[in-house]
Amino acid sequence: MEEKLINQAADRSEAHYKPYGWHHWPDYPWMSYQFRRALGETQEGGGAISECFQVASRIDPSDSESWHREWLRVGDRNRERGDAAEANGHIVTAQNSWLRAVDYYREAEFWLAGDDPRRLAVFDKLEECTAKWGQYLNPALEPVEIPYLDGKNLYAYFLRSPVNSEKRQPVLMCFGGLDSFKDEMWFMVAHGAIQRGISVLMVDGPGQGGTIRRHGIVNRYDYEVPVGKCIDYLETRDDVDPKRIAMSGSSLGGYYAARAASFEHRLAAAVSHGAIWSVNDLWGEADDSHGLAGHIRWVFGVSNMREAFEKGKDFKLEGVIDKIRCPYLIVHGGYDVLGVDQATKVYEYAKANGVNVTLDLIGEEETGAEHCQHDNPTLGQERVNDWLADVFGIDQRALLKG
């Protein structure tokens, strides 16, 4: 089994650059991974470089409480800055401040236990800032709740592209993974879609965002069920082209996208933004000391990693993705700290079974070689959405000339 870069012993104790990006605390690889993620998303508006390094200077990487405290501090500062700017009519500054706060709050709640009441409190602030930012977009961001099961709803945002004059636009449904959710999708894939004339539906599926935090709905292997509910919703809208609905899933969402496309044939295209062949193979021999064990237990709705592995048996693509009928893209970092062999297995199996599949493996020289291009998310946005625009037949020259 492939040795994961994140598990390799640190060869240097000081912060330094690796093929997968900036490695801030080499002795604390999971904290470094999350900091790298925050640092990368600054270039999509999710923070400021100086503020991120200011926060890092105040964090003790052995103390997750210091992580929560310092990211919350800078999140509150930006939220308050945005509110003050709005009161003075400085709307652009307000939007920028609120958008930074969104990602800072995402960081602030990251290491909190799933049942920690502070988690929902911070998430409420995060969504409030997204709503404030989104109300001034043109068209405005629409918070929506999508009917799911047992009277529960999936939380989502819908946003039309301002650069496409078509009444019925193509749309990209954006799903996160184990620890990413709808609000972060703006920094990972959604912004690039909007720029290319594609509407977006950013969704908290089962096990994600508000859906797990408010309803306690954990994840499921047969993700075609929630994806089908989202397509049902989109088909009720008169501003969506039902024949041009695509799905992107990031990280564990890469499994969700491939699984959904295998059984939900209303999808016109699918993207694994980070591919997973088998969840159990990805975890290897992880136990309850694993860096993301807390997230895994919470999202999978289990008490320990032994139970997670039992549930994880169904999270595999063998015997599944041969059923994909739409064009399918895998975008994967060539130095993904969680491994590369999962992506090549998905690609080779899909290709051998006649799927119209493309593998875009991004190397270190370009940057963007980290998991989900966390070191350079703009590049990830470009690779995903240029491919999608081509699939949808969008002429970007004509589009941007108006």
From TrEMBL:
Record Gene3D superfamilies: acylaminoacyl peptidase (1.20.1440.110), alpha/beta hydrolase (3.40.50.1820)
Matching Pfam families: FrsA-like
Superkingdom as given in the UniProt entry: Bacteria
Molecular functions (GO terms): aminopeptidase activity
Protein source organism: Natronocella acetinitrilica
Keywords: Aminopeptidase, Hydrolase, Protease
Protein name: Dipeptidyl aminopeptidase/acylaminoacyl peptidase
InterPro entries: AB_hydrolase_fold (IPR029058), FrsA-like (IPR010520), FrsA_esterase (IPR050261)
